Amino acid sequence: MATKTVINEPPRDIITPQVQASPDTSSGPNKTLSPTPCILVVGMAGAGKTTFVQRLTAHLHSKAAPPYVINLDPAVLKLPYPVNIDIRDTVNYKEVMKQYGLGPNGGIMTALNLFSTQFDQVLQYIEKRANEHSLVIFDTPGQLEVFTWSASGTIITDTLGLTLPTIVVYVLDTSRSVNPTTFMSNMLNACSILYKTTLPFILVMNKCDIIDNGFAVEWMKDFTVFRQALSQETSFMSNLVQSMSLALEEFYSNISSVGVSSLTGAGINEFLAAVDKGRVEYWDYLARRKKISEQREREMKEKTIDKLTELKKQSGKGTKLKLGLDLAVQPEYEYEIEDDIYGVGGESPDEGDLVHDEDLDLDES
Amino acid sequence: MRYGQLVIGPAGSGKSTYCHMIQQHCETIHRTVYVVNMDPAAEHFDYPVIADIRELVQVTDVMEDEELNFGPNGGLVFCMEFFLQNIEWLEEKLGDSEDDYILFDCPGQIELYTHIPAMRQFADVLKSWNFNICSVFLLDCHFIVDATKMFSGIMTALSSMILLELPHINILSKIDLLSSKAKKSLDKYLDPDPHDLLDEVSAHVDPKYQKLNKAISSLINDYSFVQFLPLDISDEGSKDNVLLQIDMTIQYGEDLDVNTKAMDGADDQD
Hints:
Shape of chain A: globular
Mean pLDDT of chain A: 79
Organism (chain B): Oopsacas minuta
Oligomer: heterodimer
Strand content of chain A: 5-15%
Strand order of the largest sheet of chain B: 3-2-4-1-5-6-7
CATH superfamily of chain B: P-loop containing nucleotide triphosphate hydrolases
Keywords (chain B): GTP-binding, Hydrolase, Nucleotide-binding
InterPro entries (chain B): Gpn, Gpn3, P-loop_NTPase
Helix content of chain B: 40-55%
Mean pLDDT of chain B: 83
Number of domains of chain B: 1
CATH topology of chain B: Rossmann fold
CATH class of chain B: Alpha Beta
Family (chain B): Belongs to the GPN-loop GTPase family.
Order of helices and strands of chain B: EHEEHHHHEHHEHEHHHEHH
Distance between the termini of chain B: 35 Å
Number of strands of chain B: 7
Protein name (chain B): GPN-loop GTPase 3
């Protein structure tokens, strides 16, 4: 056990559910980039996300480098670490369940949706405080897919990705992954999140105190060992599973993985080193994203100009009329912005502003 | 032989709507399909069910129980384990008539598939009751906005596929909610050209994953069943197509008698 440090409850920053009249517009969240890294802790229920955050928080406090912690799980009963922003201060998910007539799952999802509409406030707080903290930590809801396959999760991840050096931390329950099928399914999920976010990624093998993560490391390094384990476990050794485990080998070889025990605190230093590495990777991510959005912008402009030149070329049969089209003048064209791809405008009105900041800027240019 | 679909997918992907839709669609084509609700945390659904797991156990009851004091997740796990211990309840409800076609509206949490073998056991039990079953994985099409999200969706689908070890169909739901422009851009991911897909993904992710991208795109290329079927509930043809694919997978209708009544009806119309 590492030494226990007494941590005073930090002053809570509370996100108010009301729309604020005039948020500080002079410094938009995208313009000033804070260098403080931010980690998004995701993982399946029971993987030990909260205890991992607890250990990390305690470790950073003991080094006098306190983190800024944000809890996004509306259903958590008790948080074992001091938290700066808590979704439970803003939304009461039990009340949401009652008022909207939802089950526990729908309640969590709706609570998160409601919270994400006020995410600009979270960003403002982080902006303000980032310099005082060494790390920004997000603890996500227990159910994995509530965060990864929901509109609010996408909004939060994408917005953070543009604002702070964000790193996704996938927490894996090592003790449950001794079964090769479970292990592989977990890895496929991790891989899925990697593609979903395209952010720098760290795999944390938690609960190393129960079982050493050596077996998993060996599986990740040596395909034949894994195949052997798999063939003992299951009768379903189709070609697909084989090809899949081969494909995943490429995933393992590039991913930074750390064995951590949230109970004893082993591996935390290695984890922080991985965070530093991910922070460097982040700038490539940002450059890639900027490039893609610039490309989209360019394509859209080109399309407009193409359309206009085509119109100009077409010779009509009637009398010549001056159409007043001049290519030198920037055409005023209504772009159909692609946000309706998300189609969730109705659910969270702020979504467009948050996710597609660059796209919206187009309109003004 | 009986037939069944295990309808799975993340929360909010449209599982219950799918069950409702299939049931109604089958009614119009003179087929009887029953639905069983398997989600102890289900809120409401507007279809008639022949069995509802909430009659047996309800997640809110478990959560409110003072002794158990579970959170939403623990509650769900408890419910599923309780259900498996009392599986006779379902057996009674389902009866044993031949050629029944049943949809099982399952809970979405991936933890129920990975952490505890509940769903796997359930699938095995169904097989032992002489069911031909397949898993139907639904995904909200709104999340498939570019090639990386497509990869992501495929990986999620695969992860539940290898856990259930059942014949598997992937469906993209809610196509009817897309704008025509978004539909067009989705088309290229439904029948993807692996090279185009690879190029697009490579632009989005870290170059160090280049090999992984290649490996996955060849997986998509080699195994056509990791593709997604579009489901537009406003389009009869799309429903027919989905149902046909699933029927083929579970071999429904191979040994059925020819529906002479329907054929006579068709003749009458001529």
